Amino acid sequence: MFIDGRSVPEGHLVDTDICIIGTGPAGITLGLEFADLPFNVCLLESGDFEPRPEISELNKGPTTGRHGEALDCRERCFGGTSNHWTGWCRPLDAIDFDQRSWVPHSGWPFAKDHLEPYYSRAHEVLGIGPPRFDAEFWKHPEGAQPLPLSPDLVRTEVYQIEARRFGPVYRQRFERASNLSVYLHSSVVELHGRPDSTRVFDVTAKTLEGNSFRVRAPFFILAAGGIENPRLLLVSRSRTNVGLGNEHDIVGRCFMEHPHVNDIGFWVAAQSSIDLSYYRPWDEQEFRAVMGMLVLGREVAIRERRLGFSATLYSRPDEGVRNPLSPSVQRSAADVEDLDTSGLDGSDVREYRCYCRTEQTPNLNSRILLTDDRDALGLPRARLHWELTEQDVLNIREGLRILGRALGEAGVGRLRMPADDLDAGWVGDIAGGCHHMGTTRMSMDPAWGVVDANCKVHGVGNLYVAGSSVFPTCGSANPTLTIVALAVRLADHIKERMR
Ligand SMILES: Cc1cc2nc3c(=O)[nH]c(=O)nc-3n(C[C@H](O)[C@H](O)[C@H](O)COP(=O)(O)OP(=O)(O)OC[C@H]3O[C@@H](n4cnc5c(N)ncnc54)[C@H](O)[C@@H]3O)c2cc1C
Question: What does the longest C-alpha to C-alpha distance in the chain come to?
Answer without folding.
Answer: 80
